[in-house]
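Notes from the 1:1 (GR / supervisor)

We went over the backlog. Supervisor wanted to see one worked example end to end before approving the batch request, so GR pasted a single chain during the call. The sequence is below; no edits were made to it. Supervisor asked that the structure be written out right there so they could see what the output format looks like.
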Amino acid sequence: MADKAYITPKVLKWGRESSRMTIEVAAAKVHVANEKLIEWEEGLSLPTIRQAETLAKAYRRPFSLFFLPEIPRDFQPLQDYRRKTAKQLGTASIFIIREIQQKQAWISDVYKDNNQQTLPFVGKFSLKDHPITVANDLLTFLDINPLNYSSDNPIIEWINKAESKGIFISRTSFIHSRLLLDSDEIQGFAIADVYAPFVFVNSDDWNAPQLFTIAHELAHIWIAASGISSEIEPDLHGKGKFDPVELFCNEVAANALMPAGIMNGIDGKIFTSSAEVFKISKKMGVSSYAFLVRALNLKLISAEVYRKLKQDADMDFQAFLKREEEKKARQKEKEGGPNPYLIRLNKNSRLFTQIVIDAFRGGYIEPTQASYLLNTQVNKFSKFEALLYR
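Structure output shown during the call:
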């Protein structure tokens, strides 16, 4: 007979509930009836050690946690700046928030212990400041010119510049192949720590919305407002629906990515063609929709021109998405899919990965801790290094 795991029932229940997992889903993980799992959570019977280990893995908790006499103290939930009608955060969203919080807490503690200087831009401004002032400071600090990016993929430049200044940027669209992040639930979040600020971006979208999310979450860092965001990008009709912090950060992002000075200098002929709008918005790294909203707000176009161009732009965008999907399919067929280590590197943050590997190579942290922090076996770290140093 298999050995029983003498777990603490209320801790087992907390593990499931804090992962936003239903009884039905959790029971299926260990191939037992729903009633059996309820028995374990009520202390009427015990799971086997293997069953408890499986649940710990499913809940993304250390197995030893289940044996504590009381529910452990967990990370504090991030402020939720999403609309009140937003979808409840699901298991994937909870897991990615928890994972980034763990990474952030570790690196912040390391920096504190080493008397690292605090970062002056975290909380430099507040909602009392003008969004243009914050946007200009952000661009100056990161040394970014929105009309003169160094590559045709502005998001890479923003990430590289941000991480060079000590801001960790994590991007992914899934926890694993069967647990995907829902962009309707969460598009990004920020942890505004003076030692190790972290920005997370849900990459379940094309690059323009991701770039707007990065700029938006950086604004959260600049005003020290840690929290979760969704439905990012300008909205003509949503001012009464959004938290003041979200509206402010959207204004900062719009002014950083599409400064009024640049927008006012654009040749008006561009607004006679949705194709021209798409071309310049792509160059600036934003969506045609965000570009048109910005132009309308700056009174560069009328409401009538906006509606006509938006309708045409929507059709152009659908055609663009179709071409992108076809291109991805051809690339996948040719190359066999994306590099799994590149995906994991982006999820960990390149800067975070570099620091952990350096600490491991220098003998400052144990292999098990390094492996846990990067979610990769240490004998595979060379795969990361090949991507970091190329």
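Supervisor's comment: Residues 340-388 form one domain.
Batch request approved.
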